[in-house]
Write a structure and sequence with these properties.
Layout (H helix, E strand, L loop, with lengths): L5 H66 L4 H4 L4 H8 L3 H18 L3 E5 L5 E4 L17 H7 L4 E6 L6 E11 L2 E10 L2 H9 L3 E5 L5 E4 L14 H10 L14 E6 L2 E8 L2 E11 L6 E7 L1 H34 L4 H93 L2 H29 L8 E2 H11 L1 H7 L2 E5 L4 E2 L3 H18 L7 E8 L3 E8 L6 H4 L19 H11 L3 E5 L7 E7 L7
Parallel strand pairs: 13-15
Antiparallel strand pairs: 1-2, 1-5, 3-4, 4-5, 6-7, 6-11, 8-9, 9-10, 10-11, 12-14, 15-16, 16-18, 17-18
Helix pairs in contact: 1-8, 3-4, 9-10, 9-15, 11-13, 13-15
Length: 621
């Protein structure tokens, strides 16, 4: 057997040790890179999930805003049916009637904040418009090719977004067929602007757009994306859209994506080219209620990707540091082999402590996560409750308006009949040359029109939605409530006694009017069986609150029903006369303003409701 020289054996040991160290270094490098990559994937997935959840909330919030914006004008076209001059112009067009309707439409357009309001005859030609005195007036335009006209003539509600063929200005069109004796005699159209939504998105630094039923972007926080197609259009679709002139002469180019990748659960990752710079976004889309439109939200992924890279770098550094510590510990263990037993015991205790700390940390993290989830659920529940309360308030107002509809129709029919008689007499007096009598008749007609305008204006103000904050005038609220209830008070011959001083209260004006309408209506209902009917409104100013008492001389409330007065849907009236929500809503509105609504039962009879509301806060210097 031949032995190796000592020098050769030493060289072999050195080479073996060098090879072992080199293999260990390669293994550690792979481990560091692998941990960094795994941390990147986990962080990226978690970041996208978090971004998607945040985007979902933003999408829902902005979708509600868009839906609210496009529906708040829906009542306006049908309002023109209440204006008798519009119907007379459609049936018997004259220059005088056209001028009168033009001025009425101009005033209505200014008050509502719309772009334009105009009336079309059955041939689709504009016979009256709010912009009659402008160079780009619609007067005389043939708009029979528009879809909103064709829908309205058929008795359907027209809804259409397009670019005006006269002014080239984009807008949202709402149309309504004007009827006379059950037949459509013309079409009322309201054009409104929606670019305020784009301004809000831009101020909030939010990237979003709305695409219509044709896949064309009609609203966008980035003006350069407007009127681009979110999907490829075939030649037939392009020709159809060009013929419709819905988008005027826009080229309708396709929105170009530098990259597009589906992430599942309705999420997409897209890339857009901004002046040579590629930006990645998380794309989320939601359909809008009552329209074929879709709202799309683009959430930038740059910050999330940067955070994922940083987490990957931290994980790699932590892994390298851990590996270095393990190697150092192993070398140290070899050096102090004589203390192995003690060190193992110490290490076991240390490992046990770390395990307990890890478990405790995991428990604390789980508890924290549960608390965050509960907070989120509670906030969502509060938001849902607030929305439900607002809808309930609006339902209460509409219920009151429904109960008053017959009286209001009677109140409007009287001046309408007088208008018909006076206008006919005026024509005959003008033919006879009796100008003084004709002038007197015209003045009476104007007063009747003002009276009808006050009635419809009070109804429109009462029906609109109100916010939680505001400041109200007590006298103005009482006057508005009495104006709304005037036909009923006049019919039932109820005497109203006002014994209060003017006061400013910390509640929105419309909400105070709704409370007063509910309370006075209930008092009138309680007086139905009385021969002598009285209602007293008396006030009392205190240090921080103002007390307004609404008292009647009715039969009072039965003791067995007093405990249920403020319960929802509890009512002693027949089903067609009340929903049982008036007192519940009134008490809720008073509480939301920091006040209260209570009831007392006077010994002399009747019922008295006491409304307590705070004064407005003084502005801080």
């Amino acid at each position: 057997m031949q032995c190796l020289p000592a020098s050769t054996h030493a060289d072999l040991i050195v080479k073996t040790r060098l090879l072992r160290h080199l293999s260990l270094a390669c293994l550690l490098l792979l481990l560091v890179l692998g941990s960094g990559y795994a941390a990147y994937l986990l962080s990226d997935r978690s970041g996208i999930q978090t971004l998607a959840e945040s985007g979902e909330r933003q999408l829902e919030l902005n979708a509600r805003a868009v839906e609210s914006e496009i529906t708040k004008y829906t009542y306006l076209p049908s309002l023109l049916e209440l204006e008798g001059n519009v119907s007379r112009l459609l049936q018997f067009p004259t220059a005088y009637r056209r001028h009168h309707v033009n001025q009425y439409l101009a005033g209505l357009n200014q008050r509502s904040g719309s772009l334009a309001i105009y009336v079309l005859d059955l041939d689709g030609r504009v016979i009256a418009t709010s912009n009659w005195d402008r160079a780009d007036s619609y007067l005389g335009e043939d708009l029979s090719f528009r879809a909103y006209y064709q829908d309205a003539v058929q008795g359907k509600a027209g809804r259409f977004y397009g670019i005006g063929s006269t002014t080239g200005e984009a807008g949202y069109y709402l149309s309504h067929g004007l009827r006379e004796d059950g037949k459509v005699i013309g079409v009322a159209v309201v054009k409104v602007r929606l670019d305020t939504l784009e301004e809000r998105w831009q101020r909030a630094h939010l990237e979003a757009y709305v695409s219509d039923e044709n896949g064309i972007i009609i609203l966008s926080s980035k003006p350069e994306r407007r009127l681009k197609a979110v999907q490829a259009l075939d030649d037939a679709s392009r020709e159809r859209l060009a013929r419709s002139l819905q988008y005027h002469w826009a080229a309708l180019e396709e929105l170009q994506f530098a990259g597009r990748e589906a992430l599942g659960d309705g999420l997409e990752q897209i890339s857009l080219d901004h002046d040579g710079s590629i930006t990645r976004y998380l794309l989320q889309t939601r359909p809008l209620v009552d329209t074929p439109w879709h709202l799309t939200l683009l959430s930038p992924l740059q910050e999330q990707r940067s955070a994922a890279l940083l987490n990957a770098l931290l994980a790699a550094v932590a892994c390298a540091l851990l590996a270095f510590l393990l190697i150092a510990w192993n070398e140290r263990r070899k050096v102090i082999a004589t203390r192995l037993a003690a060190r193992e015991a110490l290490q076991a205790a240390n490992d046990e402590l770390e395990r307990k700390i890890t478990e405790r940390t995991a428990d604390l993290q789980a508890s924290n996560a549960r608390l965050l989830a509960e907070v989120s659920e509670r906030e969502q529940a509060e938001t849902t409750l607030r929305q439900a309360q607002d809808e309930l308030v609006q339902a209460g107002k509409l219920a009151v308006i429904g109960q008053m509809s017959t009286s209001i129709a009677h109140e409007l029919n009287q001046p309408l009949a007088a208008l018909r008689t006076l206008s006919a007499n005026t024509v005959r007096f003008l033919q006879r040359g009796a100008l003084d009598v004709a002038s007197s008749n015209l003045q009476n007609i104007a007063e009747l029109v003002d009276r009808m305008g006050k009635i419809t204006a009070s109804l429109r103000a009462f029906a609109r939605r109100a916010g939680d904050q505001g400041e109200a005038s007590l006298q103005q609220a009482v006057d508005a409530a009495l104006l709304l209830l005037h036909p009923r008070l006049q019919r039932t011959r109820v005497k109203i006694h006002q014994e209060f001083a003017e006061a400013r209260l910390a509640i929105e004006q419309i909400r105070l009017e709704q409370i007063l309408v509910n309370l006075i209506s209930n008092a009138v209902d309680a007086l139905q069986a009385q021969g002598d009917r009285h209602i007293w409104l008396s006030g009392n100013a205190e240090a921080e609150h103002y007390l307004l008492e609404i008292r009647d001389n009715g039969p009072g409330i039965a003791p067995e029903t007093r405990a249920h007065l403020f319960e929802p849907f509890f009512t002693t009236k027949p089903g067609e006369q009340g929903l049982g929500l008036g007192l519940t809503l009134s008490a809720s509105l008073a509480a939301a303003a920091g006040g209260s609504l209570t009831v007392r039962h006077p010994e002399e009879g009747g019922t008295a409701f006491v409304l307590s509301l705070p004064y407005p806060r003084e502005p801080q210097a």
